[in-house]
Amino acid sequence: MTHSPTPSAGGCRSTPVLKERGQREVFCGLTGIVWLHRKMQDAFFLVVGSRTCAHLLQSAAGVMIFAEPRFGTAILEEQDLAGMADANAELDREVERLLARRPDIRQLFLVGSCPSEVIKLDLARASERLSQRFAPRVRVLNYSGSGIETTFTEGEDACLASMVPVLPQTDARELLVVGALPDVVEDQMVGMLEAMGVGPIGLLPSRKIGDETAIGPNTVYALAQPFLAETHAALGRRGARHLPAPFPFGEEGTTAWLAAIAEEFGVSREVFDAVTEAPRARARKAVAAATETLSGKSVFFFPDSQLEIPLARFLTRECGMTAVEVGSPYIHEAIMGPELDLLPNGPRIAEGQDVDKQLDRARADRPDLTICGLGLANPLEAEGLTTKWAIELVFTPVHFYEQAGDLAALFARPMRRKAALRLEAAE
């Protein structure tokens, strides 16, 4: 069974990439904890950082009154930063108190931050020490969420990559779907794959440690998120094989993603169509409701989440928009190649960021819609540009067929708002 979308004439895989290395405007990788702690129900994320780190997480995740969250911050005080206290001993005490108070914790992630990395606190060694101490009840891992090293969505990548080496070994043939998805979206995806007869299906991350899948040379994996380059490399080192495909955004991307898996597992065209026909039709109808607003309009992507290329493909091929510039923090060809093949030739493709230069290009292009981070949105709005916060595209369920209309509506909403304000001002 083969089903793949027709590559765009020319595509963008061979388009010269404008590589920029200057001032960046992005959130740090700690932000990924906001969705990871909800996904992994028996995990706790302990940020080893400053009060600023604690305020960031509390503000981003909201204040939880009725339930204790599964994240916290081990505060590095002035004496820790000045080397007047043994930070490792302090960390051990904090972990001991936490695990005594929270016996439900089965996985503990020590998350590095800018302060912990500035003082060279070795969290890898600390996680090994604490794993030995609290095994087998608790598994302790570490990764960096520091803004020094990571951008917005790389926190999830670092977290999942830290888990790959400790997953069990197997020679069984299995599918592993990689990337954190909201539970309702994940259930939809698993339901469609199981209806096709695909299985067994493993998930990374799993909701609980006991649900983790084993991996090995007969494991094939599909990425559900485009920002997982380190996890992709870690799985390759374990012998697993990647299924390249466009990402499941919109009707076309979802169909292509599912088709790559279906072909690998020998699903017939008849079965594939029977499972996907109805949700595909619903997706096309839902997207069409937003296309009236988006068609013929131009869009400019600042680099932020690494979702930019798949989203540009969705907007141009399914919503009738024209991409002027598509910027992404990193472009991994093995992961993004199928998307670049589909993205219609024409936009500038930029990797990395020099924010002042990119702002100049956006002002010169005057796009109808600009996708950017929170720090740039308000200034650009003040200059008359219509903007969409990139962060909302990560926090909102947007994958697969049933969310395709919601995804399109996220882009249409600011344009409709701008039109309504103009109409009100004219009256």
UniProtKB/TrEMBL annotation:
Binds 1 [4Fe-4S] cluster per heterodimer. The cluster is bound at the heterodimer interface by residues from both subunits. It catalyses: chlorophyllide a + oxidized 2[4Fe-4S]-[ferredoxin] + 2 ADP + 2 phosphate = protochlorophyllide a + reduced 2[4Fe-4S]-[ferredoxin] + 2 ATP + 2 H2O. It is an enzyme of class 1 (oxidoreductase). Residues 28-402 form the Nitrogenase/oxidoreductase component domain. Pathway: Porphyrin-containing compound metabolism; bacteriochlorophyll biosynthesis (light-independent). GO terms for molecular function: 4 iron, 4 sulfur cluster binding; ATP binding; metal ion binding; oxidoreductase activity, acting on iron-sulfur proteins as donors; oxidoreductase activity, acting on the CH-CH group of donors, iron-sulfur protein as acceptor. Protochlorophyllide reductase is composed of three subunits; BchL, BchN and BchB. Forms a heterotetramer of two BchB and two BchN subunits. HAMAP family: ChlN_BchN. This is Light-independent protochlorophyllide reductase subunit N. It comes from Roseisalinus antarcticus.
